User: Fold this.
Amino acid sequence: MELLRYARAWGSERFSSALRPRRLPGEKNTGRFLAGMGALKPAGLPARYVIVGAASALAAAVFWLVYTWPVAVQYLPHFSVEYSNGVGRALQLEVVNETGRPVVFCATLYGWLPNGSFAQIGWRCGEGAVSMDKSSLDEYLRHFAGVPGEVGVIAFITYVSGTDRSGRPALARSAAGFTVDPREALRRDAVRVTMRVKSRGAPRRQVAAAKYSLQWPPQQIDEGCYAADNWYVCYYWQYDYSYETAYHTRIPLAAVRVFYDYYKYYGLRVKAYLQVQGSNYVYFRGSAAIKYKGVSSGYSADIFTITLKNETVYLDTEKSWLYPSRPIMAAVGFYGDYAVARYKEMKIDPLCPSGCETGYTADVYLARPTFLHNGTIEKF
Amino acid sequence: MTAAANWAYKTKSHDYSLLLKSIDVVSSVGGTDFFALAIPLPSGIPVDAKLTIGVGQVRQTVSLAAAGAALREAYVSTHDVVGRYYTPGIEFWLEIGEYPVGSLYLDVNAVTQT
Assistant:
């Protein structure tokens, strides 16, 4: 919100100064200055037409500015989302490193549909920012019009992260996610998402580019995802299968368990309370374990499935069990869905134009709460 | 609980009544005072046990979770409550860096005071 306030303040200042007639230094706001505006009048055209025309243009400009003025939501440090109107509907994805510098990447975006299946929202490679068709995102978000928060989009990102020992661009793989407000995104033309990844820095671009442009054709670069002479080898992740999915099931947030000495206890107590106040927000995030031919090569816990920003108490559940009469596990939490699914990484290059497996797999564990009609989370 | 099988643990004890709060478990593993808890995998899924769900909050702690147990009067003077809570050993990337997160899965047992 700080970013938004700053942007609006900056915009209004710039806008108001643009409307102001220019004045010479030291000149007072006198009739001479106003009369000077008459110099704008084209020969042969009545002044009132000029004024009406200028006013119309001004009104149109104001309307256009209001219409296109972006709404930005910052989720530091993971991602920011900006909604705006303009010409054409687009989903723009920007990937930067910790210092905000653009990275070379390929990204595949997935949505987790209410029926448990996964839908591909987009796939693109580029440097810094890419633009995709927004219609798939809109179609995905229409399933969540009634959700009182923001819904997640899973992003599998393969990006260049520094240079390896042999001087080639080194690759990093990340499964992360961002959340989108369905209401805002559906009524706006453009959604711009900026995601932050951990990078070991840019590769030595000149050396790498020269080397790889000489190593074309691509069997020389079968382990790379990089840019050289406006050419990319592209990777994407493909849904493979689900290990397990469950719907409207109990997901415990806090639990206490007693065993054989249960008779010694007066009581057990568990409590869970989720509330949003001010600019704070509550998130639900999943995780992914990335392997290469069965050997672990990375882990990410930054896949956001839902973020809740409205000021309300979403979950308030507390239970006590007095004088337990047997071993017991007492728990409170929320009702929700979960899925544990496997994705495999595919590569497209001129030798493999329809996609080949790279040997990388990602196991993804996701969960989301079930909401009641009043917008709170169903508890147990 | 798969947490018991796959995660490390810490213990905390009290004379007769133990109440463990989310802020305590998160700080005990080196996390921040943000609310950030992990939920383990359901049992029987053959994937990396490190995979977890996270529920949390940014900037300040408004949300919370707690779990506890209290002894019957007859055992108060002779027993302590020892709680074992499980630590997932993973980190969440939060606003100001990467921090370990906790969980609120608590096994308790009553031990004779020494």
